[in-house]
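[Help] Beginner question about ligand-bound structures

Sorry if this is basic. My supervisor gave me a protein sequence and a SMILES string for S-adenosylmethionine and asked me to "get the holo structure". I don't really know what that means in practice or what format the answer should be in. Inputs are pasted below exactly as I got them.
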Amino acid sequence: MAPEKVRLTGEKATLLATLYGRALDARSPDPILGDDLAADVVERIDHDFTKTGMNAALAVSVAIRARFIDRWVAEFLATHPEATVLHLGCGLDTRVHRLDPPPTVRWYDVDYPDVIELRRRLFPERPGHRLIGSSVTELRWLEQVPARAPVLVVAEGLLYYLDPGEGRALIRAIVERFPGGQFVFDAVSPLGLRTQKLNRPVRKADAHLVWGIDGPGELLAIHPRLRCLSAVSAFDIEGFDRLPAPHRVAARIAGLLPAVKRAAVFYRLGF
Ligand SMILES: C[S@@+](CC[C@H](N)C(=O)[O-])C[C@H]1O[C@@H](n2cnc3c(N)ncnc32)[C@H](O)[C@@H]1O
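Answer (accepted):
No worries, everyone starts somewhere. Holo just means with the ligand present. The predicted complex, written as structure tokens, is below.
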């Protein structure tokens, strides 16, 4: 098969960095996530991935973030084997392959049309797995999804790229369409937005983070049915000990500052 050429810019190009991060982890001697499919897919794309700004140390952060979210998703699916999963801003993430849900789970991977076309060419099909090519904020895509409960909405590395008003409208539309479920996502605070230039893959992609979320209260104000089940600082998740020494020490020191600790948070909301 001829290698795939990719022409992605801005926030779409950031998916190449996270994919490459998971591939670097898979190829490392002691993988955290062990995403071999990500490593295979990187081999099939004609692209200089070193230009994404991803490196071995950042790959550890990518792998521990993905593993953390995978665990929340697996926990939900273990008790809801008939769930609908909306995996928003999926990029080329292999989450559905890593978690391998039963065919009773209806799993929708959603991203921009050109990203979804690329996915179709790169990944094998699976029963119960569907792809939707649309901006997540053009809400008509939701009509393609039967409004059954429970729904699990997963958005890794997405929310901060959405216009805040459009992001809130998306969350509100999902809460109003489905009888119940959960949202699982990572977010950055306004401080996270102000320091985004420190994030090399974001800088290299010329992407712009525009939605900073200042704690659970701001999310709960979006809809009265929302409640916060978990809010965990990215500095508190398991796996930081796997960072190379200088990064580990820097992360430990930064994590002692409350404002820095709140700069990147994983949220789990119920409704
Ligand atoms: C940092 S990447 C994360 C990709 C994937 N979740 C991962 O962890 O590898 C950001 C993703 O969000 C997608 N994205 C950004 N804004 C979007 C929008 N309005 N609608 C759909 N996808 C969007 C991009 O195309 C890209 O795939």
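A couple of things worth pointing out: The pocket of S-adenosylmethionine is lined by residues 11-12, 14-15, 18-19, 89-91, 93, 111-112, 115, 135-137, 156-158, 161-162 (CB under 6 Å). The mean pLDDT is 95. Feel free to follow up in the thread.
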